[in-house]
Amino acid sequence: MHLIPRYPGHKTLILNFRNSLPYLPLFSYYCTESFDKQGEKQSQNEQQLIQKKETSLGSPGRFQKLISSQSDPLLAQEIFELATRQPNFRHSYASWHILILKLGRSGHYSRMESLLSSLKSQNYSVSTSLFSQIIKIYGDAGLPDEARKTFYTMLKFKMKPLSKHLNRILEILVADRNFRRPALDLLKTSHLYGVHANTRSYNILMHAFCLNDDLSVAYYLFSQMFKRDVVPDIESYRTLIQGFCRKSQVNKAVDLLEDMLNKGFVPDTLIYSTLLNSLCRKKKLREAYKLLCKMKIKGCNADIVHYNTVILGFCREGRAFDACKVLLDMRNNGCFPNLVSYRTLVGGLCSQGLYDEAKMYVEEMLSSGFSPHFSLVHLIVKGFCNVGKHEEACGVLEAILKHGEVPHIYTWMEILPRISEVDDQDNMSRMLNDILKLEIKPHTKLVDAGASLGAYLLKRIATN
């Protein structure tokens, strides 16, 4: 039986096969190795397929969304740690960022700091916005010392804090009286770490120390600005000027204003208001008036607050005629008096017994649409009555009633006894009752009844 079919050249094939027998073991070795390699390759492909499947089920992007969607920060951290235990798994930086802020905003500060330390050991590019949010978290929680430490944590990440980070930390520190000195120390040493304080940094501390009545430190900071090539701004000068005025050191405040003007700064209205008020309180009215006149030349138009401040200053010191001059300057400079202007001036004139002038300004304010306070009307009426000018007193009442205002009962009580001196008491009582019965109806305003009473009084004055 022939195992190999007969065909031309079969003898040669058998001969060649027999000649190859000595090499059969070697052939077998290479064939086995080939099959093993194919099996290993197939196994690697299967593992890659499984790993790819696992990755698709829990990719960094999917875990990031899952962590972000969790309202419970502790559950979010468990998911984060579970994903970390996956072989060859690496969270995205966004997952770290989200979880750190979730823990911090929910008050888990120790967990946040622990996770932040773990992040430091990873090779991630950390954004400065993360630390901005952490500083805000500590600020909102009222934890100034933790906010201060964040400055140094940034340095551990080999990240130089920005000026905005420094300023936010300083704001948090100075909000607590016990941390104002640490804030000052941080400002002094920040340049050692390459962080340069700006104008805002100095203003924050100057404002805090001025409010604490520690002007020496505030002025020291102001002088340090020039040494560190930091240019002060309007707020820097305003803060210090207000501090000096608050401590009644108005001369130093005026000197600072002159320094400000010499350096080319244009003071704002609040600086002038502070200085004018302080000068008037120190009874330096001449200096206050000069400053008021100087404002326009220096590029700041005086407003109603500035004029009223000086008017009040003059009236307080019994110089109502000078206050009248200020009111005239107001109009000439295009600034029209308001209710406060008139009330202050009329009150000042009455306090000096200048009732005729006061009456003139009352009529002026009524024509301008302003209503005098009932106490002011009472003051003028009483003043006229005391000097025997009953007709003028009634004239004031007539003007007030025509304007639609009702005098106070004490004002009527002041003038009625004067009228009763020329009329018998019984007749006066009967006339008043008749007027009130005639005029007061369910729909009648009290001012209408008052107008009738005023007309009666004027008539009685005219016939006597």
Task: Explain what the structure shows.
This protein has 464 residues and is mostly helical. The protein is 73% helix and 0% strand. Helix 9 packs antiparallel against helix 10 (180-189). It is elongated and about 110 Å long. Pfam families: PPR (PF01535), PPR_1 (PF12854), PPR_2 (PF13041). This is OLC1v1022479C4. Keywords: Repeat. Belongs to the PPR family. P subfamily. InterPro entries: PPR_rpt, TPR-like_helical_dom_sf.
How is this structure best summarized?
This protein is mainly α. It has helices at 10-19, 24-57, 60-69, 73-84, 93-105, 109-121, 128-140, 144-156, 163-174, 180-189, 199-211, 215-227, 234-246, 250-262, 269-281, 285-297, 304-316, 320-332, 339-351, 355-367, 374-386, 390-402, 409-420, 425-439, 446-463.
Q: Keyphrases for this structure?
A:
73% helix, 25 helices, elongated, TPR-like_helical_dom_sf, 464 residues, mainly alpha, single chain
Q: Helices, strands, pairings?
A:
Elements (H helix, E strand, L loop, with lengths): L9 H10 L4 H34 L2 H10 L3 H12 L8 H13 L3 H13 L6 H13 L3 H13 L6 H12 L5 H10 L9 H13 L3 H13 L6 H13 L3 H13 L6 H13 L3 H13 L6 H13 L3 H13 L6 H13 L3 H13 L6 H13 L3 H13 L6 H12 L4 H15 L6 H18 L1
* Strand residue percentage: under 5%
Question: How many distinct beta strands?
Answer: 0
Over the alpha carbons, how many angstroms does the gyration radius reach? 45 Å
Helical segment tally? Answer: 25
Query: What's the shape?
Result: elongated
Protein name: OLC1v1022479C4
Pfam family, one: PPR_2
PPR repeats: 127-161, 198-232, 233-267, 268-302, 303-337, 338-372
Family: Belongs to the PPR family. P subfamily.
